[in-house]
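Board work, copied verbatim: DNA2/NAM7 helicase-like C-terminal domain-containing protein
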Amino acid sequence: MSWVEVALKKGAMVTVEGFGLPYANAIHPAHEWLRNPASADIVGGKTLLDILQQEQFTFIVSEPHPQLENKMDVASLPASFDYGYGNIHSWDMERYMQQLSEIKGGQIEDSWSYSTDDSHVASVTQSIVQDIMWLHRDCLEMDKVKRSAYFVQKPTTLEQSTRYYVIVFMGKGFFEHFEKAWARLCKDFPLSLVIHNGDCTETWKARIREYPEALEALNDHPLAAKEDELVLENHVTLKWDLQLQEVERKVDAVCQFLPTAAPTNVVRDENPEESKPGSYDEKVRPSDLLAMSLHRDLMRGDGFWKTMVASASRIQQLDQGMAQMGINNQSKLMRLETLTSVNLLRGSDEWIDALMTEALEVDRTRFRRYLSNCPLGLGLITAGPGFGKTTAVALATLGMAASVGRVLGSGPTHVAVNNLCARIDVVTCRVTEKHNAGKQPSDRCRRTLVVRGFKLNDEVAAFKKLLENPTLGDDAAPTATWGLKSKWKLHLSASFWLLVCLGSDIRQLHEDDSEKLQGLHKTWTARSDLARLRDRVSGKITWEQYANGETIDKVVLEKLVQQIVESADILCTLPSLAHTESMLYSWKLNARGVAIDEAGNISRADLYSVWSNTLRPCLLAGDEKQLAPVVMTLFDEEDGNYVNRFGPDGLISPLEFIKGMGWPIYRLHTQLRLARGQFELCRNSVYKDVACTYGPGTDVELPSHRLGHTLEEFIRVKFPEVKPLKPDGKQGTLSPLFVDCRNSFSRVDPVTHSRKNWDQIKVAFNFLADFVKTKQVDPADILIITPYSAMADAIGSFCQKQEYEVLKGMRSPYTVNAIQGQEADMVVAITATTRGIGAGFTSDERRLNVMLSRHKCALIIFSDIDTVDYKGKGKGKAERVMLPTGEVSFQKARMLKDVHKSLVDAGRVAVVECRPNKRKGEGKAKDEATKYAKYASGTE
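↓ predict structure ↓
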């Protein structure tokens, strides 16, 4: 044992990690010490703050004196840590390219707290920048070479302009040198073909075509092994759009958390015209300084010591800030003794009671208590799939809107934002109906107006199409290059509410609808210049009659759309659109709160872009065990150095980061969607440490789960060797089925690494066609999920075949990355994986968790049971996997092994022998892929 005394030098200060974090454990003595560090007596009249602010400390250490003396030598202590990327982090391509070439090394471990704002901003910005700069460098190198090209006219339809297939000779070694870059470019980024004719150039939009050997138009144009065997007079260069403006947006959002940054939104009832984002100056109010300081503390993750126990130079500013916020600072030992708490559930008791009826009865008291006391106005909602997270965050968002004002809702994907928006609308309608039952008009409350925000141009284009054909629905979405539809959806869009206000039968204007919406309807009804538009929308005149007369001007239509958006109580949109679309950006600046669904999948930069830096009330809902933020270069190396040294930091979502610091969380414990027995694959592999139960809605005898029984009846006849279902005590269960497609063959694209397995698709479609025909099942209740986009395209082509006409009406297939947040009664997973090519994407636990939890009562997996060695003990070498997004990961497929073993042990595996389709075996798949790669690069 050793006695150690530590004395601070003059001017030295103590810093305490984790100080001020919310704490609640009433039966523990530390409860009062931590909640009231400046006033709660610990011993001898000393408070926690007294102890921490001493200038001399004494420790008893269990270590011999000589060794400890060496360790405690001040001269041997390391210097303050620095990442080595300087203290300037704003967007600068030249600086980034210089850092890319000069600063190299190993990968830096993920950080769950940062000691300084500079290290926080450096880590998060570099995780973004390093994920793309290497690709920018490779694109610049590709662009230097003019390449020979051969044009073949493509057969066109009446709707298409003249198009060409272009065969470009890439040169020897191209695909070897640019293998990683090419695979990612083909998946994610728009391409232009620059055609050179002397000093003149012409730019055409282009895209890479996978599996070109399947194109009949190229049958008469075989490739040559060497360039001199082709007569190619055309020369082209490839220009990729890396969408760097999106990267810049994210970097700018993170830089908001530097101490020199100005407030980036209109806060605390300021006039919007007087508080637009700008440079840091004396106009920033002390109350803003306090909020921003707390926000920086929060996102560093190391506690609130720097703000709550401020240095002398900041005391006056922070005291003024607290006074403006109504905080009486009586203690001179601390600038802020406790974190402020925000009530996100203000309103009449009757309305709150109606709101809480949407939660399970067992959760209502707990949920109400949580929302009524959110430290700093920050609430976290989490649970596994099927537990009702989106409904919970919808309830909380409505409570927030009633408490603080307009709320901006967002998420990582269009699907997530669509789901959040739709759920809020459903809940506000139900809650308002319950509250207003039997009430007089003067006592009725109003529905919250929730609007789904899209691009203004998309809204205008879609609305015009709907005027011509009101039945189009989502098909009114504008079409971009290559026939790709925009992500615009009709439901709750500005166009939707515009139609409602103009008299469409898409939805009747209700007496309880928002007063602002009612006001727009009244104003527009009185406008004579909109009379013909109203007549067309209401169906009083035909499209031909409307088109042959005076029609609405585009500028007027844009104004109507903007008025809808401005009237919203809750606006739901993507972080990128909230920045680039002026009407959405203006709304974001004035929002009073923020709500994020699927917050386990959103990046910290995207959250910062939406949330800003003034600590607006915020709700985060999600599951960190499902899809994580995308980092493409997590494990990529060049010459022994990591491409993205900060990749692990980029993988940490804001939900996971804030949860990791010990923030109070509202966790849901009741499974609501998946029928009893259907959650077990995920529960036993991913959620072993979470206490949860099946809710009453999961009873397999309910009519909503009838499809599961119908499928089981069909399985009993088609695969009698499959064991019947086992009850869970007295409760019935439903269980997934694994169809082992034995000897199926998977084709791996040598460039994009995408996979196709026609055998597994055929087995699945034969099964589904027989099932639907025999049992008279509605195909619309069936959803197919697959890991790879190439598989989704192949499945889509199967749907067009005459022999599968019975499946018409089945939803389009989804990839796992696009399916999170969606569900279906019956899900069919076709993996395209085999023993010969490995587990691929399915080795990723988070993605596999998503794929196996999208159903309600029926799940069938078509795959190869021997893809992994499920009989082993879980040990084994991690496999390098290129995921569907282009990300590279190393996985041991532990969950996949658990899933296979569980289904084999339960006897829930059926075997179907696949024909080899004239191939000699799966073992040659990799050899074939290698040969194809050599051929494509001109080395064979």
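The longest helix spans residues 414-436.
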